[in-house]
Amino acid sequence: MKFFFSRKIFALKVVVLLLFTNNSNSQTTYKVIYKVEPILQEKIDDKSESTKQIVKKIVEYARNTNYVLIANQKNSIFKKEEQLQIGNKDRLEHIYIKGSKLFTSFNEKIYTDFENYSIIFIRNLLDRNFTVKRSFHEFNWKINDSVKTILGLKARNAKGAYYDPISDKKIEVDVWFTPSIPLSAGPDIFMGLPGLIVEIHLKKAIISVSTIEENIETDIKSLKSNNVLTQEEFENMILKLNSKILKDFN
User: Fold this and answer.
1) What's the pLDDT tens digit per position in 106-121?
2) CA distance 191 to 231
3) pLDDT by residue (tens digit) across 30-48?
4) Contact 186, 160 (CB under 8 A)
């Protein structure tokens, strides 16, 4: 009888330990830094010297721009990494910064609620910031057998596509994710795989992990705004803006 009860107590301890461990893992927060490698869509050899210098400077700015993802299994925040500001930016520097953003077309910031399958993002259009809340994008990920090592982690390949309302096009994406980090997160809107996305191949850039830090002590706060648009409202606004641009152009 004594042996029977000791086995029950041992089993109870194991269950409690497993519950505590799983809860602890679910609360693990990671800080992930992503870097950008721009892809030029056309050669610049035949361009003027001034154009070459501007393009090279824009590429340089893109390469020196890092993005940070703070994430756990409940939520995440993704944004451009804060950089030291020195003095006032001149007109050319503003051109370089704006041009460098075109390689990724990332949102200004994006908050993800994994438990409710929703995101809140800030998008800059025509020098105005708009805050939008919507459900996850549908990527219809297809995981294949390709495997490689990224930052010492075993990564698997997946391909997917999503609709972009701004360009009004279906965008194809090729990503690598690592199941060893149990987060369904990634840069910007890219998520929904059984592991952290560590590399993305887009048409204009390759975004890849440079550092991963575990057990970060920080609160992940949602984005707040007095005027949050729904996805439908946001897409209707884009249609109006496009119509106005075409009208002004003609």
Assistant:
1) 999 999 999 999 999 9
2) 18
3) 999 999 999 998 888 888 9
4) no
Question: How many degrees, rounded to 5, is the angle at CA 170 between CA 169 and CA 174?
Answer: 135
What is the side-by-side order of every strand in the sheet holding 109-113? Answer: 142-150, 153-164, 169-178, 196-201, 205-213, 30-38, 67-71, 75-80, 109-113, 118-125, 128-135, 228-230
β-bridge partners, 171: 162
What's the number of CA atoms in the CB half-sphere (13 Å) around residue 216?
Answer: 16
Three-state secondary structure call for residue 246: helix
Q: Roughly how many angstroms between the first and final C-alpha of the chain, as a whole number?
A: 91
Partners of 68 in the β-ladder:
33, 79
pLDDT (0 to 100) of residue 246? 54
| Number of residues that make up the chain | 250
Please say whether the beta carbons of 150 and 180 come within 8 A: no
Q: How far is the C-alpha of 66 from the C-alpha of 62, rounded, in Å?
A: 8
pTM: 0.84
The pLDDT of 166-179, averaged and rounded, is 94
- 23 pLDDT more than 70: no
Q: How many CB atoms lie within 10 A of CB 42?
A: 8
Amino acid 92 reads L
Domain map (residue ranges) of the chain:
30-249
Percent of the chain with pLDDT over 90: 66
